[in-house]
Structure formats: structure tokens, C-alpha cells
Design brief:
Blueprint: H1 3-21, E1 27-34, E2 41-48, E3 55-62, H2 71-75, E4 79-87, E5 90-99, E6 102-111, H3 113-121, H4 129-137, H5 142-149, H6 168-176, H7 181-189, H8 197-205
Antiparallel strand pairs: 1-2, 1-6, 2-3, 4-5, 5-6
Helix pairs in contact: 6-8
Length: 211
């Protein structure tokens, strides 16, 4: 049995197990680790959309350590693996196989009700559990949102102290492009006051810096 067949067989068994374990309020799907860079790997999640018509995908470059894995596990022979990514937004529990430079398996995401409530209090509630999963992948934390609300920036009609009541999708974009409270404050010091949170995403996408 070659590597691909072995991993597909393992994923099929795990998919059945996870399907039986899934309960309301969870999202099930598959994960994959690929690439063999010295410092990072590609970690991807895929799940079926709520309407069942397409697949939702989330992925990013991460370190093995952030997944609780080691280079020895990745480079060694294929074997079973399980790891949990614990975030403010919820826990992503992964099971599958890893080795020979890559891995694959299934995952369950359980959204955090406490996080959802905290974000709602800040006017930045996720629209769906899938948005909250994206927030978990990007580590959109309560502390991050509070930092933005305290950033030195002028937001017309919102707050003269910082960003408040930012739509969750905008938070995902901001986090994905590396918009930090420090960046917002530095731009303010350079004479640029953003009029809306999404403008920070546009500035970051075009690599606009205080310099």
C-alpha cells in the first residue's frame, strides 16, 4: 500500500468517526499539511459549506511548533497523529497521519460560546460559526480587538480613541494582512488617520507604511 492510499484510507476511517462524533455547534472537515520549508509549512482546512454547494477553505503558513508537531514527525515515517489548536475563538481538534514530508486527516472545530459573547459585547460578533473558524485560524483574539479599540486613530462617527464595533469580516482581513494596533498608531503619528477599519486593510495590501 503506497503512501497516498494509506493516508486516504486513514482519512476515510477518521471521517466516519468524526461524523458520528459531530454535534450541533461543531464544524467537521479535513486538514492537510504540505510543503517542506525549513521554518514553515502550509496548513489547510477544508469543510463543506452550509448550503452544501461548495467547499470552504482556510489555510496559512505556520510553524510546526504552533501545531504542536515536530520536524521529526514530519520527516519521519507515516504514522497516526493528533493535535489540538486552542484559540480564543474555539478549539480545532485534528486527527490523521503525518510523515514523509506531509500529512492529512480530519478535524472538528468547536466554536467558543464565551468568545462569541465577548465579541458581541464589542459589536464585532461573527456572522456564522464558519467565520469564527476563520477567526480561530487567524487568531483573532479578544485582546486583539481591544487593542484596536485603544489604538490612537480617529474614526469618523465611531470613536476618537480607536476602532470600535468593527465588523468581524473586517477583523479577519485586518488580521490576515498584519494590521496591528501599533501599525494604526504609527500611521496616526505619521499623519494618516484612517476613517474606517477596512481602510487599514487597503493600506496594508498596498504596503503603505509610516515611512
Amino acid at each position: 500500500m503506497n503512501r497516498s492510499i494509506a493516508i486516504l484510507a486513514a482519512c476515510a476511517v477518521l471521517a466516519v468517526t468524526f461524523a458520528h462524533a459531530a454535534v450541533a455547534g461543531t464544524i467537521a472537515g479535513t486538514w492537510k499539511i504540505s510543503g517542506n520549508e525549513a521554518r514553515t509549512v502550509r496548513f489547510d482546512l477544508r469543510s463543506t459549506s452550509e448550503n452544501g454547494k461548495h467547499d470552504d477553505e482556510d489555510g496559512r503558513a505556520v510553524t510546526l511548533a504552533s501545531l504542536g508537531l515536530t520536524r521529526a514527525q514530519l520527516d519521519g515515517p507515516n504514522g497516526p497523529v493528533s493535535f489540538t489548536l486552542a484559540h480564543d475563538a474555539g478549539d480545532i481538534v485534528c486527527r490523521g497521519t503525518l510523515g514523509a514530508g506531509w500529512g492529512a486527516g480530519t478535524f472538528l472545530f468547536t466554536p467558543s460560546a464565551a468568545y462569541a459573547a465577548a465579541m458581541a459585547q464589542r459589536g464585532s460578533a461573527a456572522g456564522t460559526d464558519r467565520e469564527q473558524l476563520a477567526g480561530a485560524m487567524l487568531d483573532v483574539t479578544v485582546a486583539y480587538v481591544d487593542g484596536l479599540s485603544n489604538a490612537v486613530a480617529y474614526v469618523d462617527g465611531l470613536s476618537n480613541a480607536g476602532f470600535t464595533r468593527v465588523p468581524y469580516r473586517d477583523l479577519i482581513g485586518m488580521r490576515a494582512l498584519g494590521v496591528t494596533p501599533e501599525y494604526v498608531a504609527a500611521m496616526k503619528s505619521a499623519g494618516v488617520a484612517f476613517a474606517a477599519a477596512r481602510e487599514t486593510v487597503e493600506a496594508r495590501a498596498l504596503n503603505v507604511t509610516p515611512d
